[in-house]
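Exercise (ungraded).
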Amino acid sequence: MRAPLIDRTTGIQAGDVHAWFDKLHALRGITMTIPERKVTAIIGPSGCGKSTFLRCLNRMHELVPGARVGGRVLLGEENIYSDGSDPVLIRRRVGMVFQKANPFPTMSIYDNVGAGLTLAGERSRRRVEQVVEQSLRAAALWDEVKDRLHKPGTSLSGGQQQRLCIARALAVSPEVLLMDEPASALDPASTLRIEELARDLAQEITIVIVTHNMQQAARVSDLTGFFLDGELIEFGATNDLFTRPTDRRTEDYITGRFG
Amino acid sequence: MDRRYRRRRWTNSAMAVLAGSCTLAVLTPLFLILGFLARTGLGALNWDFFTQLPGAAGEPGGGMANAIAGTLVLVALAAAIGIPVGVLGGTFLSEYPGTRLSRTARFAADVMNGIPSIVIGLFAYVLIVLPLRHFSALAGGVALGMMLIPTVMRTTEEIVRLVPQSVREASLALGIPQWKTTLRVVLPTAAAGIVTGIMVGVARIAGETAPLLFTAFGNRFWNWDFLQPIAALPIQIFAYAISPFDDWHRQAWAGALVLVAMVLIANVAARYAAGRQVKLR
């Protein structure tokens, strides 16, 4: 029997997370506990800091010149912002899917999915082959591409490319999967497929999904956090948040009074 | 209304004609040169030209085999120096654009691009010819290599910068270290453009004469020793063109034709190789 692709997962605890772009104070102290094996959605109007927060969870925020992060993010027991922690290793444990599908343009479908392994020095072709198939199956893409694995990744449709990126992220066996508006550039049918996929994957892995689409958050997530101006206004079970918001601002947002 | 519309249509076609004729004006000299070279040069091209050493002064016959080989050697030497330095330097400029080092290097490359080639030749003369006490292929290769660096560096920088940030992020988010991301993901994505940039640079230096005059110097015989003077097509063309012999004049034309053909073939080959890569944008 093969080893499962995702062999462990973990929750995330953000404690007083601040983020800056140069002088701009984009996150003003976010504290939230993201449970494992659940889909946690983050909603909020444009510019509220939801993507920035997501990028603080795998140390991608600091790649922007002038960006800084404060506070702590516990991945399991480990604070990913402690002095000894290596962003490269953190990013292996916390995978990410971006707003726009971004397959490596020079690589085939197969090489795209295997990239995380081969570029990290995996030598065994058998193992890469196995993981590529497992990842493509997990991303519900295998049946569509198994006969053209060596075609360029960019030859796929937009929705397929996004699932390819999910497969690529899963291939390195992350413990958490971050999704940054993964369906915002897709048509409704492809969007639904991505949402179903997120639901299925959540049985094995913790998922945090940023979306500006409230229906999507309602459909896909177990918990929802509402961000506004760099602060977490409300966080709770998705059902409660959408039916009985406790904060006036949440209510205004989900009833469409602004944003 | 109708008048204005007609006027606009007239302006539109007039501008189209103007732009078209400017394009023709660019192409005309190119085809004139190629045509003229072919007409005057083809007559003196024969098997001997590619296989024989130059004949004695004034005697008909002989060829430029050593000069053709010499140009290839010099370009190879220059490429060995200019391509690695240029590509890696350009990559640095693009990936670390704000650092003091890259600002200085960018400025230096632009200045070097503007330095007259004869001055580069003088520099290689002082740097290599004087200490070694004689002209050499090495000195010529270094001079050409120094001319190649800034062109390759600046085009590499521009092309690598075109690689979308999202491609870099995709790689970094997989936990692939920065250096590997640059080397294995960013550079391959930019490869087609980098190759084109290299070819433009190589085409330019292949025809340079001034930096070779007192470095490679020219040689009437075969030479495979990097530390000895070596023949080169541009020098040979120059020497033959100012000679008083009709046969040498014809051979100079043939040499020019061969030089242009070499550059053209290399360009087409590189385009073909690059075209098989994935296109950016």
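Further reading is listed at the end of the chapter. For now, observe: DSSP finds eleven helices and no strands in chain B. Chain B has a mean pLDDT of 91.
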